[in-house]
Specification:
This protein is of the alpha/beta class. The chain has 7 helices and 8 strands. Strand 2 and strand 3 form a beta hairpin. Helix 2 packs antiparallel against helix 3.
């Protein structure tokens, strides 16, 4: 059984829109995607949309009638954008069935970007602390992931984690780009090499640093150390202090003097 993640955060949540997107199950090359949306936001299969892209809206409750309602054009545009994103998720399913993993990841990225744009239109994102350095740790081994994440936090990083390349790409599609990504190479579903290629093809991540943190030898993996690949290679077993010092130097951070490793 293949799921987007293994914890209570499996769903991709758009709280302002009230929309949840979830990859429920993948059996072989077939993926089941669920979209949960409020009654006033129709999410339709393509065969339920007429030739003009319209569908009959659902009736609203009396409580909803007391609120300021969007114009017909705004409602029309919202439905079209939501339906476009939903159709893109359906295309992801077909692409995965056909073994087109790379194209499926790009289509998924497009769908999630559409949801992000809709949410920003309804309520702009809150300001974030730009001074805090952010790291994404991509590691399939839970023990290593938790230990390195805690070391990074003690060294002044704000840390998010992903269990494999697919989860990492979903995170990058949904979140502000981190300053640095630490990427394992040998992972299930989507390995580090393919994930790095997808990241480097996206101009939105041009300034993001990516490091390989892996047991693989760089001479045996098709990943370049350079602008089209990773910014550096740390082969396991590595010295955590050297990794942390390097990251802090490259990102212009002040080292935590109390942390001795």
């Amino acid at each position: 059984m293949l799921v987007l993640s293994r914890g209570p955060e499996d769903r991709i949540v758009f709280p302002t829109l009230g929309v949840n997107v979830e990859i429920i199950r993948v059996d072989g090359n077939r993926v089941r995607v669920g979209v949960d949306a409020p009654r006033e936001i129709p999410v339709l299969r393509h065969e339920l949309v007429d030739e003009e892209g319209e569908a009959k809206p659902r009736k609203q409750s009396k409580k909803q009638d007391t609120k300021k309602q969007p114009s017909n054009k705004e409602t029309h545009d919202l439905r079209n954008q939501l339906n476009t994103a939903h159709l893109a998720l359906g295309l992801v399913e077909k692409q995965l069935e056909a073994g087109m993993t790379d194209k499926a990841m790009k289509t998924l990225h497009r769908a999630l970007r559409t949801f992000d744009q809709l949410e920003e239109h309804v309520a702009p994102s809150a300001e974030v602390d730009s001074a805090k350095r952010r790291a994404l740790l991509v590691e399939d081994d839970q023990g290593e992931r938790e230990l390195l994440a805690e070391l990074l936090r003690l060294s002044g990083f704000e840390v998010d984690t992903a269990e494999d390349g697919l989860q990492a790409l979903v995170y990058l599609s949904r979140s502000r780009a981190p300053d640095v990504v630490l990427m394992d190479i040998n992972m299930p579903r989507l390995d580090g090499a393919k994930t790095i290629d997808t990241i480097r093809e996206n101009p939105d991540f041009a300034s993001m640093q990516v490091y390989a943190v892996t047991g693989e030898d760089p001479d045996t993996v098709d990943v370049e150390v350079g602008p089209c690949g990773v910014d550096g290679w740390f082969q396991k077993p590595y010295q955590p202090r050297k990794l942390l010092d390097h990251l802090q130097t490259q990102l212009g951070m002040e080292a935590k003097q109390t942390l001795a490793i």
